[in-house]
Design goal:
- With 151 residues, the protein is mainly alpha-helical.
- It is built from seven helices and no strands.
- Helix content is 81%, strand content 0%.
- The chain is globular and about 70 Å long.
C-alpha cells in the first residue's frame, strides 16, 4: 500500500512538472508572438503600436535582452530618450556581450547631451572590442561636441 501511495505521489509530481513546463513553453511562445507582431509595426515605423506589443512580450518574459533593446530603440526613435534609457540599460545589464546594446545606450546619452556618459559607454565597449576605429571616432566626435579632447 505504501508503495502505491509513493507511486501515485510520484506520478502526480511528474504530471505537475510536465504541466508547468508546457505552460512555460506556451507562455514563451506567446511572448515570441507578441514580439514578432511588434516587429511588423516597428518595420512600418508605427513605433507606438510596436511598443505596446513589445511590452506584452516583456510582461511574459521580462528577462529578454532583445525585447528590452527593441523597446529602447523604438522609444528613442520617438524621441522619448528618458524612457528609452531605462530599457537600454536593462538590455545591456542582461547581456553585456552585445555591442549593439552599448551603441544604442551611447546614442541615447548623446541625444540627451550626456556626452560624458556616452563616452564612458563607448570606452566600456572598447574594453570588450579593443582597437575598433569606429568607436574611437565616436568618442572623438563626442569630445568635439563638448569642445574638449583627451590628452
Amino acid at each position: 500500500m505504501k508503495l502505491l501511495v509513493y507511486g501515485l505521489a510520484f506520478v502526480f509530481t511528474v504530471h505537475l512538472v510536465v504541466a508547468q513546463k508546457k505552460k512555460e513553453e506556451k507562455d514563451f511562445s506567446q511572448a515570441e508572438y507578441y514580439f514578432a507582431e511588434g516587429m511588423k509595426f516597428f518595420i512600418l515605423e508605427s513605433y507606438s503600436k510596436a511598443i505596446d506589443l513589445f511590452q506584452r512580450s516583456l510582461e511574459i518574459n521580462p528577462e529578454s535582452s532583445g525585447t528590452n533593446y527593441t523597446i529602447a530603440d523604438a522609444l528613442a526613435r520617438l524621441g522619448r530618450y528618458d524612457d528609452a534609457l531605462k530599457y537600454a540599460e536593462k538590455a545591456l545589464k542582461l547581456d553585456e556581450s552585445n555591442k549593439y546594446f552599448y551603441v544604442l545606450l551611447a546614442q541615447i546619452y548623446e541625444r540627451q547631451k550626456k556626452y560624458n556618459a556616452a563616452v564612458k559607454v563607448y570606452q566600456d565597449l572598447l574594453k570588450k572590442i579593443p582597437l575598433n576605429e569606429e568607436y574611437n571616432f565616436e568618442i572623438a566626435g563626442l569630445f568635439e561636441q563638448q569642445s574638449k579632447y583627451e590628452d
